[in-house]
Amino acid sequence: MRALLPLITLATLVGCDSHVNVFSLDDDRQLGADLHAQILSTPNEYPLLAREDYPEAYGHLDGVMDQILASGAVRHADDFEWQAYIIHDDSTLNAFAAPGGYLYFYTGLINYLEREDHFAGVFAHEAAHVDRRHATVQLTNAYGLSTLVDLLVGENTGILGDVAESLVSLQFSRAHEFEADEYSVRFLCPTEYAADGTAGFFEKLLEESGEGVSVPAFLSTHPDSQERVDRVHAWAEELGCTVEPSDNADWAAFQAALP
User: How many CB atoms within 10 Å of residue 253?
Assistant: First the structure.
């Protein structure tokens, strides 16, 4: 019974507060690595572009990530793996992240965006979910504490595919979405990118929502986009961040480097 008390306490905490994270940083790293291995093992579902075949595209992607991690605002910049990948699917307007620093961006999203600032905003938003450790909380809510504990100790690994698939459309809470938006501003503020890049992406979606552009999967359960636009602009102003667009000089080259 004494051995069971810690797990009982953790389960009680999760039941009482859906935002309590009962896992350690090591747990985040292990779960993220397991999920990434699952994604690598299913190329038909997740056709990742190989780094050795697209060095220019990945060099650009890593450059965006490096600026964000060097901002001084990412509290787990040195704790997680922080690896970014491109999924070759031009019909999907999406991005998602796994615990421990694994981030994935579909070519459909990259090709849809016209400004690097907007992509940097999406990147910073997904990085904020990782850094604030939102995915571990939401996966616990979705699958239960015991299931994730089983995965961490190497049991019940047959459900890794289901868990990986759920990352694509993971339903974060309203509070987590607003927090990720706020921290996207904090992450971008010291970089060359406009700190309100996330808002620019939402504004483009709002402008084109009646032109056959569907809401991306990773936004389908989020708070109202206009409210988020207003909040992002307000946070950028409050923090005294620049919102001047970057020169965008290399964005077209990044898109052209994709298949």
Answer: 11
Phi/psi zone of residue 179: left (φ > 0), alpha (ψ -120 to 50 degrees), beta?
alpha
Whether 5 is covered by a domain: the verdict is no
DSSP string for 1-12: -TTTHHHHHHHH
Q: Are 106 and 95 in contact (CB under 8 A)?
A: yes
Q: Output the six-digit token pair for 159.
A: 């459900």
DSSP reduced 3-state for 105: strand
- Give the number of domains in the chain: 1
- Spell out the per-residue pLDDT of the chain, length 259, in tens: 233 333 333 443 334 345 567 778 998 998 899 999 999 999 999 999 999 999 999 999 999 999 999 999 999 999 999 999 999 999 998 999 999 999 999 999 999 999 999 999 999 999 999 999 998 787 777 777 777 777 777 776 777 778 777 777 667 788 888 999 999 999 999 999 999 999 998 888 878 765 555 556 555 545 577 888 899 999 999 999 999 999 999 999 999 999 9
Residues 6+ apart with CB under 8 A from 174: 223
Q: Is 175 within a domain?
A: yes
| Alpha-helical runs (H) found in 169-224 | 174-188, 197-208
Per the structure, the complete domain to which residue 74 belongs is given by 21-256
pTM of the model: 0.85
Question: What does the alpha-carbon distance between residue 40 and residue 60 come to, in Å, rounded to a whole number?
Answer: 22
Q: Does residue 25 fall inside a structural domain?
A: yes
Is there a domain that residue 137 lies in? Answer: yes
Which tokens in the block code for residue 138? Answer: 């939401």
Q: 98: part of which helix (H) or strand (E)?
A: strand 95-98
